[in-house]
């Protein structure tokens, strides 16, 4: 039953197995010329991996399935370590069972069992985490993964309050189609939109591509219900309150530590009268940043603004445009003074037609002020068409022998250019010491864009590609080197360890540098008061800290 | 030294003692006809109260002053119980000393002393709390009130990041004049603006009149520094983050329980090209609510929208317009079909001139859609001129024998009309059982407006006036009856116990109904982990709960 639903899902990579994103011939040449030709690593077959799944430590039960393939399919997310595990077949970690609850009552029963028997409990949404949110943790406790996939109904739309209630396991497309059929939208479009779930968006503090217009999930999450080890907690849908700390803010980013979010109430908007995306080219990265900052600080009512740096722009054009198209674009832009360092700026305009006209006029003025060239909606349509397709490129590149991953952060405007430069340099030079024998293998192709803008800063989203090594182990080691060095650099340079992906296990080590030890320990203790034995998604968000430290922190009078 | 600075401050009431707000003769008649003539209660003199201030339980020290008048002037806020205490002279509670630190270093020293010696510590901003935030708590611990009045400097404006850093004790006018001189504004204008402080706004989750445009303090508070019993905690100014729960959200609404906020960094906006306020009249309350909801859910970019119900509208017109003005307004409106039930709607339009034009046009269309009559800017200017003056009316009415207080909440749109009706009825009939002998004394004049709007709901701000009784005690008893019955009704009817005033001591009893016992206890335990002995502003935000309960909650393994 549960298997058939997942049949279209790639078992060892991203997304729908029927879908793919091919490179243009030019794109393939560009990548190969940039990173050298590489021999891909061998990929394990499903049968090989199935044979390696160990016996479950749990007994048969009606509450969950012990089916080997189901366990395998819920063992890993989409982080690079997850990806290497899936491709090599060395999963190592599997849940002992997977439950598919259909109601809050089912979840209460599962939680009571888990609590009584000391199991680890991992809430599972779309399985799209890129930072290890749903990967089981090493340990002697049996692991029960709770898939929310059956709790995906639209429960209610209140047209007066503009609040919609969904089962937390609802995925992006189903959520939007239900809302749009009734004239509303949530407007939350993370790149993982096709697969990720509303509950996952909330507990990881996700952000959609159009957060500039619709707000981050913090703004959209109105309330709902969460099942804890001590029973259900109702989160009221107050539009605003000054009655002490806002508890919703502790659910947001809790990453499973409070319990399982079952129903989520969200603030929806009416469908806009008009929405379109357009593209401009700025003469260079500095002007691109300045243009974005000016637009936002002027308070221009856009729904999106992204600026790619010149390497990202060049890469994108190679990957998605033909030589003729690139030629004519270059010609057009150079006539207007924008040439080799050009930076692509993608904007979204959403709302009332008359207001949109005004916004568009003002945006064009800002683009001109910073010597950019607006090319209008043609390329914007192309962007919108492919907005959720980029993750499929990972497979295409993998088959060519390249690993691809991303790092993202947010920081204040004055730190944007320096921090981007540091991040890119750290990645680009991060493998320089490896492979002195084979220089080609130390190459890393790095590019960035600003994806989410705020009055006081922006997010930086950096993509990096590097050739796989001769073995999975060595590839992992190289990734780890790039990831750890650059992550530490980010938090030491006033960036957040994550603007939109969350903490999971991969970022847990950096949280203390960002928030300070006292704050991190206090938050961990807070969650422990809901989960005394640390059974809820252990090893995520926080590094394991010794039990005696927790006890000390939570016993105020000693 | 500290005394001279406060010389202009009313010692037993609101604001600047040179300022007042007189009633028009018609206004006075209206109130008297509505509530009957009353004999005011006698008001204690400053000398009488000074004679009652008990000896301090603290020794002389350079760290603070024991001056009797200074202690008296920091003993009470502006809640109705505070007001009755100040007018009767029965303060009962005084801080034992008041400190005026000039630096974070000073605060560290004060906190170390307080911690070592077991004092209560009350952070004091503008002393404008209307819910008992700064009133000392009964108990055997000496009370040190820490006035932030000397830590009020503009420390930095970062023009690139649009972040300004202030000492937490800065008051509204000084903050805005400093920012506006440099082309920026915070845009945070609570009614207490003239006296309240930035630090106070943050720790009580305050909201300004134009939060629709500029955001609540949650949106404006970027970071800063807080001194805790365990040292300083830096709160980084990240524009956004998905790295676990956002700790700023635990500072917001902490009401002194974490420590003392010393430096506050805020997100500022550029001064708008144009700003104006206008007034329209809607035919009745239902149409007023519907118009406000439509404007907000359409996403109209206004900086303010308030709608008074018909009693508030009538009262306002009596209090502020002449008979001739009222006559002509009534004539004009009735020609357009708006008559006795008319509801005043005040709007604020802020921004780029061209965009404003568009917003104004759209707003007028919405007003027409709901059969309202827009009268333009004339009355809007009048509103803006008096926007911070209303609290001075309390003194004027007091001298006539009337007590005035407010209750405020927020709830979802579908609950706005029913909840307003319940609140008003509860207040209007709340004294019906008292004074059967003297029926006039059971009258309560009640009116409401929506002051802050959100896509999913609005705040309801209800004002009530009632005649004082023959004694202060009886007046207090009557107030308590109105307050407690109506507060419980609010939280039982899906309203928050406070949209903008905070919890303090007056609302602490209702928090559990709103957030649930588990959540409230967990938050209290959280703060206790920063303040094991409960020395920081005790009795505020949370009801005192038995120490053994706290211990149980914070010892996860028992």
UniProtKB/TrEMBL annotation, chains A, B:
Homology family: Belongs to the FAD-binding oxidoreductase/transferase type 4 family.
InterPro entries, A to Z: Alkyl-DHAP_Synthase (IPR025650), FAD-bd_oxidored_4_C (IPR004113), FAD-bd_PCMH (IPR016166), FAD-bd_PCMH-like_sf (IPR036318), FAD-bd_PCMH_sub2 (IPR016169), FAD-linked_Oxase-like_C (IPR016164), Oxid_FAD_bind_N (IPR006094)
Segments traversing the membrane: none
Record's protein name: FAD-binding oxidoreductase
Cofactor: FAD
Any Pfam family the entry gives: FAD_binding_4
Binding site for substrate: 394
GO molecular function annotation: alkylglycerone-phosphate synthase activity; FAD binding
GO-annotated biological processes: lipid biosynthetic process
The UniProt record lists the keyword Disulfide bond: no
This protein's UniProt keywords: FAD, Flavoprotein
Natural source organism: Shewanella hanedai (Alteromonas hanedai)
Residues that coordinate or bind FAD: 123-129, 204-207
Catalytic residues in the record: 461
Domain named FAD-binding PCMH-type: residues: 91-271
